From TrEMBL:
Signal peptide: none
InterPro entries: EvaA-like, EvaA-like_sf
GO molecular function: lyase activity
Organism: Streptomyces taklimakanensis
Protein name: NDP-hexose 2,3-dehydratase
Residue ranges annotated for the dTDP-4-dehydro-6-deoxy-alpha-D-glucopyranose 2,3-dehydratase domain, each copy included: 35-236, 252-454
Classification via Gene3D superfamilies: EvaA sugar 2,3-dehydratase subunit
Pfam families listed in its UniProt record: Hexose_dehydrat
Top-level taxon of origin: Bacteria
Length: 461
């Protein structure tokens, strides 16, 4: 007679409770205290040599433009390539455009190791240099590595703590979900976002520190301290949401979103970089003919605490700072966020949920009236008393140079943002976003940054 194996609970509610407790702890019980953090981070900055210098494309080591296509790639055939993208759509102000795009088909790992100290869940964060960050050194996940990096195509050092995320049974998985990256600059790029809890004794490397969720939340109230990869992982944390209801029921929200995806006609095709129209290549950069949007540049990098101490690579550099904001309203006492079902050419599945406003304002200076991007002017002119949060955060520093966005939460009035949302927009609760971010390709990376602020207590609605 066979014996059935014991059943496991489908969901452990204690995880949400422990995360909530960690979000409430800043100094008390924390291994790494607030007063010591600034000195520690500055010490890590002084301990290593960092240098990033712009170079001509001809000076790239191991990179070249492919004869025929003009695509920019590495001689190993790994890491990533800069190619062209041609997009046709019936949505938005532009029916057709072409642009350079980063193609990186391999899936990277963004992993944060968690461990309990004195009854409080802590997270192992790394002081990591990325060449595109304006201030170079920021807090990153425990592991932040492409497959090419952690399989050592570059012949560099091992990625520290990698086994906790690649060897089954090394810990208890709290989060494991594929998420997209910037759909405007990456072609169908995804990373594995993970949080793994361990009971092992961890030998602490000098570039790493343990922080509570609340302490990370405090650091998120500063400009350019916590990097994008850490923010996206923290957004996926299964934090509980005590919400009695929502303006849209979950099935209604899914139906609305599925309809937006189904009804949007998008054809995004890779094309040779050398044939992309509206862009021009010089010795030092690839630029749009109107000087807008972004440019492709090359840099030489020296970094004392990376797996490889020196290398060169292409980077995408935006022409200005982005503006990324959620408008908020309370409905029946429950906070709601106005999401946008946004098309981006590089998305795997056409559309993802984005913040209310996600624009680079200077790209739209010649558009007036109804041609202006919805809600952009409302965000830019918001009364300071209505702005709950306004900080500058870097985007992906491993592929983008000086890419920063102002991230905001702005309380909206009834006339400014009615509950009957315009086409392409919907009011959702933070809990509904947390539910959707547990699945792949629903919530975009900019919305996940704003969600990470809620999950860590950096913003309370």
């Amino acid at each position: 007679m066979s014996i059935s194996p014991p059943l496991n609970r489908r969901r452990d509610v204690r995880i949400a409770e422990r995360l909530a407790y960690s979000a409430d702890v800043t100094d008390k019980g924390a291994v790494f205290r607030t007063a010591d953090f600034d000195d520690w981070l500055e010490g890590r900055r002084r301990a290593h040599h960092f240098r990033v210098q712009r170079i001509a494309f001809a000076d790239l080591d191991g990179w070249s433009f492919e004869p025929g296509t003009g695509n920019l790639g590495h001689h190993s055939g790994r890491f990533f390539t800069v190619e062209g993208l041609s997009v046709h759509t019936d949505t938005g102000p532009y029916a057709h455009w072409q642009q350079p795009i980063i193609r990186q088909p391999e899936v990277g790992i963004l992993g944060i190791l968690a461990k309990e100290f004195d009854g409080v869940l802590h997270f192992l964060m790394q002081a990591k240099m990325e060449p595109g960050n304006r201030n170079l050194l920021q807090l990153s996940p425990t592991v932040q590595a492409t497959r090419s990096n952690y399989t050592k195509v570059h012949r560099g050092a091992d990625v520290k703590y990698l086994d906790h995320f690649t060897v089954p049974g090394r810990g208890r998985v709290l989060v494991d979900v594929l998420q997209s990256e910037h759909g405007a600059w990456f072609y169908r790029k995804a990373n594995r976002n993970m949080i793994v809890e361990t009971d092992e004794e961890i030998r602490l490397d000098e570039d790493f520190c343990w922080l509570t969720l609340g302490r990370i939340g405090e650091l998120l109230r500063r400009d350019n301290v916590v990097n994008m990869d850490a923010r996206t992982v923290l957004a996926c944390a299964p934090v509980s949401s005590d919400e009695p209801g929502a303006l849209l029921p979950d099935t209604g929200l899914l139906s609305w979103f599925t309809a937006r995806r189904s009804e949007t006609d998008v054809r995004a095709e890779r094309v040779p970089l050398g044939q992309v129209r509206g862009w021009k290549r010089s010795e030092w950069s690839i630029d749009h003919v109107e000087g807008r949007y972004f440019r492709v540049v090359a840099v030489s990098v020296e970094a004392g605490n990376r797996e490889v101490r020196g290398w060169s690579q292409p980077l995408f550099e935006p022409c200005d700072t982005g503006v990324t904001a959620f408008l908020t309203r309370r409905v029946g006492g429950v906070p709601h966020l106005l999401v946008h079902a946004k098309l981006e050419g590089g998305f795997l599945d056409r559309i993802e949920l984005a913040p209310t406003a996600q624009y680079t304002a200077t790209n739209h200076t010649d558009r007036i009236g109804d041609d202006r991007p919805p809600f952009l002017d409302l965000v830019l002119s918001a009364d300071p008393e209505r702005v709950r949060y306004d900080k500058l955060h870097s985007e992906e520093g491993g592929r983008f140079l000086n890419a920063e966005s102002r991230y905001l939460f702005v309380d909206a009035g009834k006339s400014e943002a009615p509950l009957e949302a315009p086409p392409g927009y919907a009011w959702v609760t933070p809990g509904q976003l947390r539910w959707l971010v547990g699945h792949s390709h629903y919530v975009n990376v900019q919305a996940r940054t704003l969600l990470s602020l809620l999950n860590t207590g950096a913003v309370r609605l």
